[in-house]
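Run log, item B.
One chain of 223 residues. Sequence copied directly from the ordering sheet:
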Amino acid sequence: MSRVRARVDHAVTAGTFSLDGQTFQVENNVWVVGDDAECVVIDAPHSVEAILAVAGDRKVKAILCTHAHDDHVRAAPALREAVGAPIFLHPDDKPLWDLTHADDRWDHDLSHDQEIEIGGATLRALHTPGHAPGAICLYAAELGSVFTGDTLFQGGPGATGRSYSDRSILEGSITDRLFTLPLQTVVHAGHGDDTTIGAERTRLMSRRILSRSRRLRGEEATP
């Protein structure tokens, strides 16, 4: 068994998110996983320079996209050109990718249970549709971490209600694919602070119990 040399590096970069005719100011996390020699970049938000500052002088082996909303992939082609690394994306997110990069394409499809090795650690892709049809999370068992994009945050599931999203599918993905991970697994999301699988499982289950109780009493559940 190879020794785990990989670590998780992080920065925050700011820009915009646009969909369905609306634009919002957002801050995105930049996650880089690797050792002193090579790394992978998870999502490519806003600024190539900000991403390169985290990667440093390491060889970037891959750009792994958790989904294709523009605030997660806008800089992906430019980053690919800068570092010579291929872009990976789940093909179900093609309609969203095309909104930002209609004349370009990612390099490799990313599929459920696909494994990417880096620095003695393995990132396993988990297809978690709902926030976006091709959304994936990346689970690194050796690092006790999962990179969830916009599928799961500190505070609960990602947003739905916009094009290509579905709340019931999202909650099913979280329950079936994420809540089966060890409870102590650290959640590194696309926005905001870290949390754990255990904390978010408890939070979501508590909400479901409260909602069911209110329905039984004939009360309207809060969103």
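Observations after the first pass:
- The domain at 7-216 is CATH 3.60.15.10 (Metallo-beta-lactamase; Chain A).
- The helical segments are 48-55, 70-73, 76-83, 94-100, 167-178, 197-216.
Flagged for discussion on Thursday.
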